[in-house]
Amino acid sequence: MAARAAALLALIVTAAADGPCDILGAAGNPCVAAHSTVRALYAKFAGPLYNVTRPDGRSANIGVLSPGGFADVAAHEAFCSELDCVISNVYDQSPQGNHLGQRHKLVNASRHKITVGEQVQVYGMWFDPGYGYHVDATTGIATGNDPESIYAVMSGTHYNGGCCFDYGNSETNDRDDGCGTMEAIYFGNAHWHGNTGHGSTGPWVGADLEQGMYYGGGQVTQVNNQSMPLTSEFVSLSLKGRTDGFKLKGGDATQGILTTMYDGPRPDPKIAGTCNGGTYQPMRKQGAIILATGGDNSNSAEGNFYEGFMATGYASDETDDAVQANIVRVGYKNLPEA
What whole-number distance in Å separates Cα of residue 278 and Cα of residue 191? Predict the structure, then answer.
């Protein structure tokens, strides 16, 4: 315990100066995808975060106020003064260049303003059903049964049970290729084949592994009472896939630590009632990336997205703690209602 406490303290000190992808990289789990309209996810990142497009077809990249900083809202609002821009791309800040582009409808760039830090205004992404992004041709993303670690900040107050509000690893052909061909964070209150976390209303952090959104595996494939609802305005979510199972974590993105909601084997197809003779173990991940949509092009979900990043390997609990501490320091807040 003493060794873990010392390691955690060192990582949290690092978290105060670095971005989450710096933390993961220092821990031996480099980011291979890093997406946000809110902030830089590396301390030295100074490039564009996202691209906005007006109805006249003109577009502009929106960068950061300073290296490692928050989005330049003044540039956004000067270009999108009529409030009718869409976000056409969310750029990958990692060296891999896995930029997200259009899959379904594109979100309004100016619909969802929030604050971070010392009342710095920025824009998150507000998704209604029918909207979504992806990139099929990627580099560096886990494939097959390779381990990976995925993190995201979403909203615990804007969600539904539709398929599927996801961020993570998906099929490269935009089709359902069978159980185990996806590994993406799912967030919402879907009850696919009766699957549920604690209670009946959610929302819960889950894993979309294709042909099912799961809040647990093994003997708790269908009902996992350890998975508690996450109802904070901003929620931190984590899905980590190892070679023989997966772990789900969640918490308040503005305070506290992440709670383990599940840690164990992958779903049992016999309990799940899916797969038609297939299996979730070993996985057959393909390495595309999706946001706010399902692997098979399903687009009936809703939610908010602020940041997400994917890293190689299975990150340690100490690394998770440091990443969460870094997210808390962002200071996510909704604007007061008018």
Answer: 21
Task: Compute CA distances 261 → 147, 183, 270, whole Å.
Answer: 19, 16, 22
Non-local (6+) Cβ contacts of 6 within 8 A are none
Q: How far is CA 188 from the centre of its chain?
A: 13
Q: Looking at residue 158, what DSSP letter applies?
A: S
Helices (H), ranges, 61-195: 73-79
Q: What average pLDDT does the structure give for the chain?
A: 95
CA nearest neighbour of 246 among 196, 292, 281:
281
Q: Which residue type is seen at 242?
A: R
Could you report the per-residue pLDDT of 70-121, keeping only the tens digit for each?
Answer: 999 999 999 999 999 999 999 999 999 999 999 999 999 999 999 999 999 9
Alpha carbons 150 and 167: distance in angstroms, whole number: 8
8-state DSSP, 336: P
Residue bearing tokens 């902030």: 39
Active site residues per annotation? 210, 296
Name the residue among 336, 292, 264 with its Cα closest to residue 113: 336
Q: How far apart are CA 306 and CA 235, in angstroms?
A: 10
The tens digit of pLDDT for each residue in 308-334 reads 999 999 999 999 999 999 999 999 999
Indicate yes or no: pTM above 0.90: yes
Compute the Cα dihedral for 296, 302, 303, 307 and give only its sign.
Answer: positive
Residue whose entry in the numeric block shows the structure tokens 């009529």: 82
